[in-house]
Design goal:
- The chain is mostly helical.
- It has a domain of 55 residues.
- It is 42% helix and 0% strand.
- α1 runs antiparallel to α2.
- The longest helix has 28 residues.
Length: 97
């Protein structure tokens, strides 16, 4: 979860505290009011969580154990192999006339 999704969750929680925006059902018992607000919070969070996370994922912030993408490396260059005829020493004596 990124920081923006966390802020959305906090704002949603505050909005669903009974008495902040509205109290449902008005005049109901305390436990009934709390249960209704908890249910509404859960339903709204369930249907908006993925949308908010997807919208805020590409905002350039990396958190937790997310790894930065590795740059592509050029193909590994190999050294030329030596043939059997190239293994002679260059210090061999040359025939003289």
């Amino acid at each position: 979860m990124n920081i923006f999704a966390s802020l959305y969750l906090a704002a949603l929680f505050v909005a669903f505290v009974p008495g902040v925006l509205i109290t449902l059902p008005s005049g109901g018992k305390r436990m009934v009011v709390l249960a209704v607000h908890a249910l509404l919070f859960t339903v709204v969070w369930h249907f908006t969580n993925k949308t908010v996370s997807n919208m805020t994922r590409g905002m350039g912030m990396r958190e937790g154990f997310q790894k930065m993408p590795r740059p592509s490396l050029p193909p590994k260059q190999t050294r030329p192999t030596m043939d059997a005829k190239d293994t002679r020493s260059t210090m061999e004596a040359k025939p003289t006339r």
